[in-house]
Amino acid sequence: MRFVDEFRDSEKARALAAKIAGLCEPGRQYKLMEVCGGHTHTIYKHGLEDYLPEQITLVHGPGCPVCVIPMGRVDDAMALAAGPDVIMTSFGDMMRVPGSNGSFFDAKARGTDIRMVYSPLDSLKVARQNPDKRVVFMAIGFETTAPSTAMTMLRAAAEGLTNFSIFCNHVTIVPAIKAILDSPDLRLDGFIGPGHVSTVIGCRPYEFIAADYGKPVVVAGFEPLDILQSIYMLMLQLSQGRSVVENQYSRVVPWDGNVVALRAIGQTMELRPYFEWRGLGFISHSALKVSADFAAFDAELLFDVPGVRVADPKACQCGEVLKGVLKPWECKVFGTACTPETPIGTCMVSPEGACAAYYNYGRLTRTRVSEASRT
Amino acid sequence: MTAGWIDRALSEHEQQQAAGRNGAPQPLPGTVREELVLERIDRVRRARPRVREDRITMSHGAGGKASQSLIEAIFLDAFRNPLLEPLEDAATLDVGGARVALTTDSYVVSPLFFPGGNIGDLAVNGTVNDLAMAGAVPLYLSAGFILEEGFEVEQLVAITASMRDAARVAGVQIVTGDTKVVEKGKADGCYISTAGVGLVAPDVNIGVATARPGDAILVSGPIGDHGVTIMLARGELDIEADLASDTAPLNGLVAALLAGAPGVRALRDATRGGVATILNEIARAADAGVVVSEDAIPVRDVVRGAAELLGIDPMYVACEGRMVVVVDGAQADAALAALRAHPAGAQAALIGHVVAEPAGIVQLKTAFGGTRIVDLLVGDPLPRIC
After folding, report:
1. N or C terminus of chain B: which is more exposed, having fewer CB within 10 Å?
2. Would you call B197 exposed, middle or buried from its count of C-beta atoms within 10 A (0-12, 13-18, 19+)?
3. Distances from the Cα of B147 to the Cαs of A18, B144, B183, B186, in angstroms?
4. Phi, then psi, of B127 in degrees rounded to 5
């Protein structure tokens, strides 16, 4: 299949892997973080780690939109959805995220009207078809999905829809990366930069990572060869003692981002003073809310939102996993109490979550892989 | 406050941990910690499944882990007997000296009509195939209809005509039935439930538990056509593709296969949950491992393309006219030739093998050159596919 198979070519992968191995300094361990959950998914789905020398460890970062939503926020959404005449719409990923009283799926089974949509614009369709209901879209995601939420609000305003609103949970990636860089318990050598976010915000926002923290950043695409090439580019910088921001995904990511998308976000949303991230705690200026001009579409103003903080179950170590301090299997409840079918932590819910990716695809040690290859 | 089930899961976990500390076998020196965690997980996965939810959710019908838990923890627990226990597609009974295969299945597909067929074809072919997967020659079917008040008679006529035609092609007769009508809003147009009986020849002995290391694994044709067709037919995605459901009877193909390759150990039609789910059932029932190659699995470009766009894996997408075959490794070529000689198996392929270790785990050699696990599906990407 064109535009897919050429990025999954195993011969090219072998050639790149040999070059990467050649750049490893003997005795040195390298820790590279892929910020984006989409990368985590690709890495596991294609078995990319089989190509890496043992000296290189990939650390799975916080860029999974579902994983960073705190439990209290899920409870707020369910309280909203249970209100009279409310239809809540949500992306499929969000449906299984546990709040303190089960997930959206459980709420749906109890009779709450929660519907899965593929695009926020589909929520407008639901709103038009149900004029006597109040339709609330559960907006989640980084700068990747924020523009589509923004465009939806602009469209709703243009149509004069009065029964539609947004429960805004959009977050921004740079403050989270900064929080990780400032975290004392982690030493990283470089970053595989988030490709989809960068199509919107461009590459400039990462320059402080290279300049102030001395860590190389390579913005990467989502096919396995993209990621392998990005690892090569990071290793090359490290071997030359350089740290700059490079763009491996130039076929999609413009250096300056997408001005139209940024303008749409700017028109409809504004930064929150602070926002709670699951596992990472409160991070200032790290999330978006509906702006005052679009208050008519802000579910947080239109409805009573309980806003109760809910502590994560004590045994859950999602925070450490999101920061890359723990590998998924190092979490105390991984795979026993916490599994994809009964996730306790959010990292086990989304296919982009590090724990779910490892559980579903990666439960193989190098020994097991080599045993299977022999047969 | 946390949800009841989280508390329960955590307290069980602590009990297991405590039990593990007193008297559990000690790890061999030198075993890596990750390996220990994986062994612990394997133990948990082998434990008796339970339904933790208070209410049925859509996941319980999706053919993945939740469905498996529901079947084993509730239905198998209530009805347990040696005939039910193997959980094959059809039960094989001894009736007055004859070996009779019996199966039942319900159909709730939405939309009722889709490219390549409708709920009627599906209801006949699905049940015919469940009998064929037991190695039986399908003979007679029953058909039960649950109709919603307001359903158009013309549509019902179209559905029954398809059923008549499908039965003729498969060589079976629909010999008994039932009809119920429910108030508007209590059903979605038309649901069909069919049961079937067939005869199993004395020398045929088929079951997933008989698979053993060295066996070859084949599929009878390109996978995922039905599931992707249904998804696109719902029109929610604004994607158009030239694709039709693969719904078809497999009894003719099975007969050709059994005649051409006597070493066939197991047959499963890859319906809900797709080929990935079948491979997991094989690994679990045979207590062996399965290794398949992504490169070898036939998937149409249009199915691959749609699946890429939707973020789903064709390995989990339902087929309604494809089967997975486990055959003695020595007879892999004979089986492949027998399948390919039949029109319904023209694009059959050898996709992998049964291996001894790691037991219960399905591994995929990716086209990219890596290795990963293929697990049972969790969640519900494609509800009401059949």
Report:
1. N
2. buried
3. 63, 10, 9, 9
4. -75, -40
User: Is B54 an 8 Å CB contact of chain A?
Assistant: yes
- Closest by Cβ to B378, choosing from A49, A99, A340: A340
DSSP state of B110: S
| Rounded Cα gap, residues B357 and B360, in angstroms | 8
For residue B249, what are its two tokens?
Answer: 């009877």
For residue A52, the chain B residue with the least C-alpha distance is B370
Question: What ipTM score was computed for the predicted complex, to two decimals?
Answer: 0.83
Antiparallel, parallel or unpaired: β A190-193 and A217-219: parallel
The Cα A260–Cα B110 span in angstroms is 39
Residues 6+ apart with CB under 8 A from B122: B107, B109, B245, B247, B320, B386
Using the structure block, give the residue that is written with the tokens 């064109």: A2
Alpha carbon distances (Å) from B78 to B56, B72, B73, B75: 17, 9, 8, 5
| pLDDT tens digits in sequence order for chain A, 375 residues long | 777 888 899 999 999 999 999 999 999 999 999 999 999 999 999 999 999 999 999 998 888 888 889 889 999 999 999 999 999 999 988 888 888 888 898 899 899 999 999 889 999 999 999 999 999 999 999 999 999 999 999 999 999 999 999 999 999 999 999 988 998 877 899 999 999 999 999 999 999 999 999 999 999 999 999 999 999 999 999 999 999 999 999 999 999 999 999 999 999 999 999 999 988 889 999 999 999 999 999 999 999 999 888 888 888 888 888 777 888 889 989 988 898 888 888 888 887 888 988 898 888 765 556 555 554
Distance CA A203, CA A197 (A): 9
Scanning B164-223 for CB atoms below 8 A from A yields: 213
Nearest-10 crossing angle of helices B332-340, B251-260: 140
Contact with chain B for residue A122, Cβ under 8 A: yes
